[in-house]
Design goal:
Mean pLDDT: 83
Distance between the termini: 17 Å
Radius of gyration: 21 Å
Helix content: under 10%
Order of helices and strands: EEEEEEEEEHEEH
Strand content: 35-45%
Length: about 240
């Protein structure tokens, strides 16, 4: 899954390297970051709402679609429904992703956890993304307690779902301006799937004790965990994942 729902300002038209028409939309920056440029490609699902002249420049638009990082390192949106004019005061930047951990970045800041995530999504011929490709990949960052929890429970290959905000970073190096997109995880908006990676000390199942607090892989699991049994020596296991 790779869905974005957002409100941004339509700035101008843009032609992709493959000659496809698109609309340049700017989302408000995340934190102190710059505005986030995304490129909306017309589809049959959007009908006539993405065609040239459908909206005046600087109109705020409500969009919903699939998110893809193009081979030109621009972020594209393939609409899954019509695009609508929105109030300038409406603030919405929400990305929903589901997939597997592709890599875990080296830690340079103890307050933030960075990793890569691969998602499964339909191929997009207009972006030269075929079914042979591994799927859209995204850089993810999680801060504070969310970052600590993810650092403890995530490993390469583990599956998860999360909600976050699309952000854009720019910096200068050797006189050149560099940029990249990231998804910033929203607090408590994630769940892990599959078992935790066992450590050397966890090869045998731990014996539950009232003196040792129970650890949950996800903040959601604590709310759905079963209560402890009457016996002080036996504790029901905690399910790993969201119940369906």
């Amino acid at each position: 899954m790779n869905i974005i729902n957002a409100v941004g300002q339509y700035k101008t038209d843009y032609t992709t390297p493959l000659g496809a028409n698109s609309l340049l939309i700017e989302l408000p920056g995340t934190g102190r970051g710059p505005k986030v440029p995304i490129y909306l490609i017309p589809t049959w699902a959007a009908k006539d709402s993405c065609k040239k002249g459908a909206f005046k420049e600087d109109t705020h638009l409500l969009i919903s679609g699939r998110l893809y990082l193009g081979k030109d390192y621009k972020m594209y949106v393939i609409p899954t429904q019509e695009v609508y004019a929105a109030s300038p005061g409406l603030n919405l930047n929400h990305v929903s992703l589901a997939g597997g951990v592709g890599f875990i970045a080296e830690a340079h800041n103890p307050d933030v956890f960075n990793f890569g995530m691969m998602c499964q999504a339909p191929p997009q011929k207009v972006l030269e993304i075929s079914k042979e490709d591994r799927g859209p990949g995204f850089r993810i960052e999680a801060w504070g307690e969310d970052g600590k929890r993810m650092r403890h429970f995530l490993y390469q290959g583990r599956s998860l779902a999360l909600g976050g905000a699309l952000k854009y970073e720019q910096w200068e190096k050797n006189g050149e301006i560099n940029s990249r997109y990231k998804i910033r995880v929203k607090s408590n908006q994630y769940s892990f799937f599959g078992k935790s990676k066992p450590t050397a000390e966890q090869k045998d199942p731990p014996i539950a004790s009232f003196d040792k607090p129970e650890i949950f892989d996800s903040p959601h699991q604590q709310a759905i965990a079963k209560p402890t049994t009457a016996s002080p020596d036996i504790k029901d296991p905690v399910d790993d994942g969201v119940p369906f």
